[in-house]
Design goal:
By secondary structure, the protein is of the alpha+beta class. It has twelve helices and nine strands.
């Protein structure tokens, strides 16, 4: 995440509007002079922290229209909150201006605290919360993660990673190869059972809490879609990597808990893991496109350092399955690398 600064006049104007709104709230009593940046994300949203008269702290979301809409955040907070997991409480809202006052889930993300000693405990908490959210899924509550949306995400890869980042134009044959891989991924993704999907369930959006761990943030893009999506986000995280054996162990533990809870995961562990890897690959390709777009279109270079890990995930997953292996050959051609030895099954 990169921190926005209120440097230009439009930001300053919004900041004064925000302070005016905060001052007008009857409760809780806030000390507007304590307003300070908390964080921001890859969108136009930014977050501030503010102290209350009683020394409690709160989070203020600034989501400027027309770029952002706070209504999906309010709705998903309600939907996920109903499952019993920890999400920010919405204490005040101005939908027209795009301002929300939220309860504060602290300032320690999973990413900041994770180490080999605490990782197992933290990931088990995250997996339990994920199962809890999925158990409360109902089809009509969230938008559908349909083929059109999954494909639109995949197309970010050829447009932004290959076209803009590598500066290449694919041949017809290369385009056909990529589309064939996309079709294989989508066939698998769409055949999976459907549940609530956070869509960014990873170490930067999970907060470490003493009680009710983890605190869950950044869920406004949630949808109803493939059951392995959030697990893939969590365990094949663009910002932190774990050994394959550990990831496999955590994936199996999720699968066991999900099955025990009655969730519709693939009953065969090998097939389930294949679902997890295919879903992960769809996400990796999307993320490579998004990171390239953040750099080339939005001037945010912080994500460039995360690209090699996402590409490593991409190559390893594609190597393991015959119908995805052409992607590795295509990447070799595009990146002008010698073919790498891999195993398929």
């Amino acid at each position: 995440m990169s921190l926005h600064t209120a440097s230009d006049s439009s930001d300053d104007l919004r900041l004064s509007e925000l302070k005016k709104w905060l001052s007008s709230l009857p409760a809780p009593a806030l000390r507007t002079a304590t307003l300070r940046p908390a964080s921001s994300d890859a969108s136009f949203r930014r977050y501030f922290r503010i102290d209350g008269a009683d020394s409690s702290s709160y989070i203020v979301m600034d989501a400027p229209p027309p770029h952002e809409d706070v209504r999906p955040f309010i709705h998903v907070a309600d939907v996920f909150g109903a499952s019993g997991v920890s999400v920010p409480g919405i204490l005040a809202q101005d939908i027209t201006q795009g301002f929300l006052l939220l309860s504060d889930l602290g300032s320690t993300t999973y990413l900041q605290l994770l180490n080999p000693d605490n990782a197992h405990t933290l990931y088990m908490d995250a997996i339990n919360a994920l199962v809890q959210i999925q158990l409360h899924s109902t089809p009509a509550a969230l938008p559908e993660y349909d083929r059109a949306l999954l494909l639109r995400e995949l197309m970010l890869f050829p447009e932004w990673y290959i076209g803009k980042h590598l500066g290449l134009t694919m041949t017809e044959k290369q385009t056909a190869t990529l589309n064939q891989v996309f079709d294989a991924l989508l066939a698998n993704n769409l055949a999976q059972a459907q549940v609530y999907v956070h869509r960014d369930y990873h170490s930067r959006n999970l907060m470490v809490l003493q009680k009710g761990n983890p605190g869950i943030l950044d869920f406004q893009d949630a949808v109803y879609g493939p059951i392995t999506y959030d697990l893939a986000s969590l365990l094949r995280d663009a910002y932190i990597q774990w050994d394959e054996e550990i990831v496999l162990d955590w994936a199996i533990r999720y699968w066991e808990r999900a099955k025990r809870a009655g969730l519709p995961v693939n009953p065969d562990i090998d097939s389930f893991y294949r679902d997890f890897e295919y879903m992960g690959l769809q996400r990796h390709l999307k993320v490579l496109g998004i990171f390239a777009r953040l750099y080339h279109r939005d001037g945010k270079d912080a994500y460039l350092k995360d690209m090699p890990l996402v590409m490593e995930y991409t190559r390893k997953a594609a190597h393991r399955y015959k119908e995805l292996a052409p992607l590795v050959k295509l990447l070799d051609e595009l990146e002008d690398k010698a073919p790498q030895v891999g195993y398929t099954f």
